[in-house]
Fold each of these.
Amino acid sequence: MEDETKAPEEMERELEEMRECYRSGRTMEASWRKSQLKGLLRLLREREEEIFRALHQDLGKHPAEAYRDEIGSLIKSVNYALDGLKRWMSGNKAKLPRLALLTTAKILPEPLGLVLVISSWNFPIGLSLEPLIGALAAGNAVVLKPSELAPECSSLLANAIPHYLDDKAVKVIQGGPGIGERLLLQKWDKIFFTGSARIGRKVIAAAAEHLTPVTLELGGKCPAVIDTLSSSFDRKVAVQRVLGAKFSSSAGQICIGVDYVLVEKKFSSSLVELMKMMMKKMFGENPRESQSVARIVNKHHFLRLRSLLLDPLVKSSIVYGGSMDEESLFIEPTILMDPPLQAAIMMDEIFGPLLPIVTLNKIEDSIEFINSRPKPLAIYVFTKDEPLRRSMVSKTSSGSIVFNDAIVQCLVDTLPFGGIGESGMGRYHGKFSFDTFSHQKAVMRRSFLVDVWFRFPPWNDHKLQLFRSSYHYDYLGIVLTVLGLKRTNRASKGI
Amino acid sequence: MAGEDKKQQPFDSKAASSLVAELRGAFASGTTRSYQWRESQLRGLLRMTDEHEQDIVAALRSDLGKPELESVLYEAAMLRNSCKFALKELQRWMMPEKVKTSLTTFPSSAEIVSEPLGVVLIISAWNYPYLLSLDPVVGAIAAGNAVVLKPSEIAPATSALLAKLLGEYMDSSSIRVVEGAVPETTALLEQKWDKIFYTGNGRVGRIVMAAAAKHLTPVVLELGGKSPVVVDSGINLQIACRRIIVGKWGNNNGQACIASDYIITTKDLAPKLVRLPYPHVLVFSLYGVVSCTLPYLFQVDVLKNELETFYGKNPLESKDLSRIVNSDHFTRLTKLLDEDKVSKKVVYGGERDPTKLQIAPTILLDVPRDSLIMNEEIFGPLLPILTVDKLEESFDIINSGAKPLAAYIFTNDKKLKEHFVNNVSAGGLVVNDTTVHLAVHALPFGGVGESGIGAYHGKFSFDAFSHKKAVVYRSFMGDAAIRYPPYTNGKLRLMKALLGGSILGILRALFGRS
C-alpha cells in the first residue's frame, strides 16, 4: 500500500497540518460535527453495494451478515449520535452546597485534539467507523488506520472517506505493522485500539511515552454457560442463539462471540444432539455451499486454527464437523466434547468456528471455572434460575454479561461496551463513545461580590473555628461565631 | 497488626509479589465487597482523622512546616468531608443503574452494575501527604477494593504516621501501607494490579504508566503543569489579588499542583478600570490615568499590599507559610530565581533563608518566555507576571504550552469569560477565583494531556476504582428468525427494517413492501 513508503517527515508534516486544523477551532463547531456524521450516513447508504462486495471479498460475508453486524449497526449509531449531539455537547451542571453563594459549577466536555483509531480485520468497516462516530461527535481530528488484513475494506475506506468527510481533519492511513509502529511513535491526544492483547500492550507502552490516554478493545475466551432447561422451546432457542453467536458472525472470528460452552454432564448429550440438529437446519448438509458461514480471514489464521485440532486428544473429541479446505480458507462449523483443558484450544482465544463443550458436575462450578481464567469480554448465561443468575452477576467479572442470548449487548446504545483486565480498558458505544473521546472539563464561576473573609491569612483560632463550622455546613455556627457567641474550641473534634 | 512494613527486611520483588497474592486472596474471599465492610472502613478513616488530628498536624509541621490551619483545613477537614460524602452516598453508588433498551433488542432489560476492580495500588505525593494518600483510598474502599498505599518518602513523618494509623484503624487483611522510596516503588510497580492511582509529576507518571502497560493495568495519573491566572482590567483588584495570594502562598507556600503558577495581564489597562463602583477603584483609576503606560504596577501594588497584610513585613518569619520541603527543591527554586534573564525582574521579595529552607513570597515582572521559570512547573513561592498587548493573546500563550491542571481568569467581561471557558483547555477552570474547584465533590478533579489521565473526588472516585459491567436480561421469547442462517435477501430486507427501529418499517418489510 502506498502509505508504507511515505517518508517519516511527510507523515509528521501531515499530522502537524491536522493539528493546525484542529487548533483553528473548526472541528469544535456543532455544525461541523453534524456535517461529518451526516457524511458518514451518506457514505453508508451510497456505498452499500461496494461495502457488501469488499466484505465478501475480505471475509466471505453474506450481505445479510454484513448489514446486521456492520452497516445496520453503524447507521443506528450515527443516528443515535446525531440525536444526542446537542445534549452531549452542553455538559452537566454540578450541584453545589448552599454555602457556595453566587457560584456555579459545570462539567463541560471538550475534544481531546488529534486522535488515532486503529481497527481490526474481523469487522473492518464496523470497527473502523464506530469509534470514528464518537471521535467526530466529540469534535476531534482523526487518523484512522484500518487493518491491512482486510485489504479491500481498507482501500474502500481510504478512497471513500475523503469524499464524505472533511479531508483536512479526517485522514485514513493504510498499512501494516510498519506503519502502525510509526504511527505509535507520534504524539496523540488519544489512541483507540481494537485488536489482540499482545498488540494492545505495545499500544499502551507507546502511549505511556506521551501520557496519551488509551481505550483498548481486546478479547478473551467468552463462555456460554447453558443451564439444564426444562422447556424444549427454551432449549431450542438457547441452542439457536449460541450456535448463531458462534458460527454465523464472521465464522466465530468475533471478540464477543461464544468461545466455548459450559454445561452439566447430565444435560450434555441431549444438548449436543440438539446442536447437531440445529446445525443442519442453519447450515444445511454442505455448509461450505450455504453462503452462511464466513471464511477464515487468511492463511496464517487458517493454519493457526488447523493446528488447534492437530493434538490427537483434541481431534478425537470432535463430535460434529471438522472438515477444512485450505484453498478456500473454509473451516466447517465444528463441535468438540470435553477436549483436554491444557490444550491450546482451551487456553487461547479460538477466534474461529470451533466450539468446545466443557462438562461440569454442577452448573454452579462454572463460576470457579470462569474465575480461574483471565476476565473475558463477555459472559453468556442461559438459565431461568434466579439464584444462579444472581451468583453469576455478583461472583464473576467480565466486560459484560448477558442472560439468555449472546452478542446483542453491542446493539444497546445505553450500555458501555468494553473489557476489563486482559479483555481491555475503557469503553464506547452510544454516549460512551462521545465521552471516551472527550475531556470532561470542570468549570467553576465565582462572583466578586461574595467571599468568606476568614479565607485569608493571618490565621488565628477565630478563623479556624469559622472554617470548622463552614466545612460542617453549620450555618448557625457560623453566625454565632461571627457574633462572638460561640466559643472557639481548639480541642473540638469532629470538624 | 500487620499494617507496617518491617524496616529490617528489604521490600523487594518477592515481598511485593507475596503482598499482592495475600491481598488477592483477601479480595477473592469477598470481604471487601459488602456494604458493611466498606462502611466500617470509611468510618475507621473518619475516626482515625478525628482522634489523631494533632498527630497529623505535628507530622505535617515536621515534614513541611505547614501552618496548623492549612493542615486542619486542607488535609484533615477535606479528608473528613470526603469520607462523609462517600458514607452518605455509598448505598446509592452501589446500586445498579437501569438503562433503557430499544426495539432492536426487544424484549429485554439492561443495567450497569458497578463492581470493584480487585487489588489496587495508590502512590501519593509529598505536598499534601495526608490528603493525597487517603482521598484516593476513600474511593478505592467505597468501590470495594483491596488497597496498597505507598505514601511519599519525601514526607517521612506523615508516611510513618499513615503506616502506624492505618495498621491500627483499618482491616489489614485488605488494606496495607508500604513505606519506602525508589526500590520499594519499583518492586510494587513490577506486580500486576487491577488499577494504579498515582499523584505526582509527569516524569514518574510515564514510568508508572509504562509499568502498568505490561499488565494492561488501567491508571489514573494526577500530575501537574503551569496553571496560569489571566487578569483583566475592570475588576475588583483587591479581591482578585487576595484570591490569587491565598491560592498560591496559602497553599503550602505555592507547592500545590493547582496553585497559580504565573499571571498574564495586559501592558495596557484601558479606561475600563472604572467599571465597578468601588471607592478604591475610583481612586486608583485616577492614579491609573496618570500612570496608564505602566498600569501593571498598579496591580503589583495591590499584590504587594495584600501580601504584607497577610504575611507581614518579614515573611521569612511568618508562621503562616509552609517551608520549602527539602534542600533539593530549595536549590531548584533558587536556581529559577537567580537565572540571569530573570534575577533583575524581581519586584517584590526574593529573600531566602537556606537554614530554614524558606523563600519569601516573590513576584517577578515581565519575565522572558524562554526563561527557566517559565518552562517548568514552579511549585514554590515565586510568581512571575507575563505581559501582553491584548488579553486575548494570553489564550494563545496558554494553549501553545502543555495543558495545565487548572487555569484561572479574573474578569467581568462576559465575552472574554466565554472565550476563556470554551477555548482554554485544562483539567479544570475557575472564573474569578483560584483553586476552590478542588473542594466541590460534584466536579471531577483531574488533568488532560501532560497534566494527567482520569479524575476523582466525590462519585468520580468511586467510578475511578470500579468496573462498570453491562448486564442484559433477555427472554427466550421474541426471536427473529431473520437473525439466523440460512441468510437470504428477504431476511436482509427485514433486518434493515428491524435495525432501523421503526414499527412501520418492520411491517412494510414483513409484507414485502420495502
Note: The mean pLDDT of chain B is 89.
Amino acid sequence: EANAVIIPQCSHIPPGRRGCLMETTVSPNKEELVIRPLHSGDIYTSFQFRTLWETDFTRENKVSHYRLFPKSLGQVISKFSVRELHISFTQGYWRTMQWGQPYLPSPPGAELWVWFQDSLTDVDGTWKELTNVLSGIFCASLNFIDSTNTVQPSASFKPLGIGNVTDHQIVCTENLTPWKKLLPCGSKAGLAVLLKSEKLFHSSFHSQAVHIRPVCKDDQCKTTSWELRQTLNVVFDLHNSGQGKNEWSLFKMFSRTLTEACPVASSSKIYIDITDNSQGEQFELSPATPLLSQAVVLGDRRTFSVYDLTQQITFGTICNVLKLPVTYSAHAGDMLRPLLHAERYVAGYGLQTGEIHTLMYNNHPYRSFPVLLLDSVPWYLRLYIHTLTVTSKGKDNKPSYIHYQPSKDRVRPHLLEMLVQLPPNSVTEVTLQFERALLKWTEYTPDPNHGFYVGSSVISSLVPSIVAMDTNNSRERPLFSSFFPSKEESSYFVRVYTEPLLVNLPTPDFSMPYNVICLTCTVVAVGYGSLYNLLTRSFQIEEPSPGLAKRIANIIRKMRGVPPL
Amino acid sequence: YVRGIFKNLHGWFINCLRYLFCCFQDRAGQFFSSGHTNNWAVLVCTSRFWFNYRHVANTLSVYRSVKRLGIPDSHIVLMLADDMACNHRNPKPATVFSHKNMELNVYGDDVEVDYRGYEVTVENFLRILTGRLPPSTPRSKRLLSDDRSNILIYLTGHGGNGFLKFQDSEEISNVELADAFEQMWQKRRYNELLFIIDTCQGASMYERFYSPNLMALASSQVGEDSLSHQPDLAIGVHLMDRYTFYLLEFLEDIHPASKTNMNDLFKVCPKSQCVSTPGHRTDLFLRDPGSVLITDFFGSVRKVELTMETINLTDPIEQLESAESGELQKEMHTYADQLPVSEIIHQKPKQKDWHPPDGFILGLWTLILLVFFQTYGVKHLKHIF
C-alpha cells in the first residue's frame, strides 16, 4: 500500500486506500463586477465570485481533493450534512426608495440560513456546532446564535430551512479578511485586488455574503454540482469620501487598479450599467468599449458596457481609469420606482408597552400581488397577537395564511408568517402591540442602555415585471441576473428587508447589589454589633485614679498604717 | 627558525579554529537553550466604548509586532471588547492609529479577531488559558499550547489594586489569574510565560503569582496611574497609552534575528517618559533574564534541521474508476419555487404531538373528583355511569 507518497494533484491520501478520487472536469470559476451609477449620486458596485464543484457526498469515499473550492467550506458541508447555506454580513441599511432594488438583498447585521439534508436527525445539535464553526471561519460572533433567536419558518425561505434572522453585528476588516481568503486567487489577482478595506468600509452600505447551494449541471438536470457564490455589494457616496467632483474612476473608488485577471478564472468581466445613458448625455466612459450586453434583471431590461479582463487589449492604459464627467441633474424622478417597498418602526412611549408598525407599499398602478411577511421577534418583547391588525387603504385586509408560533421565555422567539395580498397603489399597515419583559440581572449585556435589537422583517414576493423574464436557467448568463431562478415570465422574485428595531428594555440600576451589600453590612455591623456587646459584656465600675495630692497622702497614710482615703 | 615560525603559525591557527568552534558551539548552544518549540500569544483588550480607543490601539500594536516577528494568526488569540475601526464615530473607517497625524495604521488589512464584543468576558479568558472550552469551539478560538510553548499574554484596560475590569461589568482578580497560571503549569500548558499588563496599578496583578517560569512586566506600581500618550484632534480621543507606545517603538527595532534580551525590555519607558514607574518580576523565572531573547516570546523563530538523507518514493498509485456510468437513472432535480402561493394557502398545519396532560391538570381533576365523591358518597357512582 502507499505510504507517504507525493502525487501531483492529490493533497491527502488516507492510509490504507489504494487511490484517490480525481476531478475529471475543471471547475469553472467566474468573477464579475457590476457598477451602476444611482440616481442619488451614489455608485453601486457589486462583486460576484462563483466557483463550481463537482462532487457527491453521498458516496462512501470521503472527499479529500480540493482545488478551487475552499477546503474549510467543503468540510463544513460534508460534516454537517448541509444542503444549502447562506450567510451574509451587512453594515448599513439599503435605501430602496433612493437606490432601487439590490441585486442580492441582505438585512443589516448578520444573517444565516441553512438547509440540512433529509438524512440529518439531530438538527439542534448540528445547528449549534455549525454556528460555532462558522463563527471561527468568519471571525464573527455567530456563537451567540442559539435556540432563543433561531426560527424554522414554514412558508418563507423555500425549501424549508432553519435560520437566524439578523443579529446585530459590526462588520469590519476582520470579517473581510477570511472572506477574501476563500477566493481562489485570494486578493492577489483579478477583481479581488480592488478589495481594500479602508475604502470599502468608508461607504454608505457594505454587504458581503457567501452562498452555497446545489445547481443543475446541465439542461436535463439529472445531476447537481455545488455552487459557491461570494458576493460583495458596496454603495459609495462620493461626496462623503471627499471627492467633490462628479467624476469617478476605479482608482478613486478602490485606491487600487486592475492589472490582470485571475489566472484560474474562466471569465472575468466588468459591467457598467449604461441604460440611463443611451445617448451618452449623462456620462462618458473612458476607455470606451465596443462590447455591449443586455440582460433582464429585476424586471427591467438593462444595457451594460462590458470590459473583459481576460483579453489583453482591455489593459490599454497603465491604470484602468474610467472617468465620468457626470452631472446628475434634478430629474431623479425618472428612476424606476421600486414596486415593493417596506418600512417598520416602533410606536408608543414608556418602558412598558409599545407597538410595532410595518408598512408595505405597492407602487404598481393596477396590479396587486401577494407578499409573505416573516417576523421573528425575540422573547423579551411579549407580543399580543389578538391586537394584530392588517389594514389597506383604511379597510381591513385579512391575510390568506397566518402561521404563528408563540415564544417561550428564554427558549425560542416569536415567529409570525402572513400571506397578504397587497392591493394596487396602496399602503398596507400591520400593527401589533407588545409588552417589554424584565430580564434577569445577568442577562443584560455590558451596555444595556444602548438598547436591544429586533431583527428585520423579511418580505418575499413575486412582483410583476415589465419585461419578460428569462426562464431558461441553464444558459450562460451574467451572475447578477441568475441568482433567483425564474419559473414564469411575468413576474420575478423579490425579497425586501425592513429596518431592524432598537427597543429599550427596562434597565435596572446595576450598582444596586453593591449598595445593598454596603447597607446590609453596615446595619449588621452597627446594629447587631452593639446589641451583642450590650447583652454579653459585663460592666464593672472602676474608680477614677485619684489626683496627685491624694496619692501622696495615701502613701503617707500607708506608711503610718492608717487605711487610705 | 622557519620551523619555529611554522609551529607558531600552526599553533595560532589551531587556536583560531578552537575559538571559532567554541563560538559556533556557543551560538548553537544559544540557539537551543530556550527549550521551546512554538510560540503563542494571547492579547486582550478589556474596555468597551469609544473613549477607550487607546486600549484597542494598544492591543493592536502588540498584535502587529507579534505578527511581524513571525507568530502566525493561528497561534494568536486576539480579544477585542469593542470595535473601534468600524465604529460610526471613527472619521476614518477600518483604521486604528497609534501615532497622531495618522502615521501608522495598526489595524492593517489582514487582521483576524478571535473574540470580539460581548465574547470578551472573564469566563472566556480563563477558559482559554486553562483549555476548558466547549467541544464545538473552533480552533482559532483555542489556545492549543503544549509543554514546549512560550506564551505571551498581554492585558490592557482599566484596572485597580488587585483587579482588572472587563467591559465595565465584571472584574478579574490577581488571585484568579495566579490560579489560572498554576492550572496551566499543572496541565503542562506552557514552557515559559511572559505576562505584560498596561493598566493603572498594574504591578498588583503579578504580586500573587506562584507558578514557575513566569516573567511579568507592568506599566505602573501599586498606587500609581498609567497615563495615556497623546490625543489626535481629528479622531478626538487619546490614541495610545504611554507604556505601550514606547513598547511599540522598542519593538519596531526588533527583527526576527535580533539578539536583544529581556534586560532591554525592562528599561523601556523609564519614569521620565512614562510618569509612572514600570515594574517587573523575574524571581519565578528559572533562566537569567539577560539570556532570554525578545524573540523567544514576541517572535516565532522556527528551528529547522537540515537532513542530507535521501527518501525513496514508491510507484505512483493508480486512480480509482469513477463509477458514474453504472448508476441507476436518477430523478430529475428542479429548482424550488420561491413563493408557491397556492401551496402555502392550502398548507395543513403541522400535527402537534400529543403530550399527556400536565401534572397540574391531573392534580386539579383528581381534587375535583375527590371532593365530589367525598360530598356525595360512593353509592351514587352507579347512578352516574
Note: The longest helix of chain B spans residues 2-31.
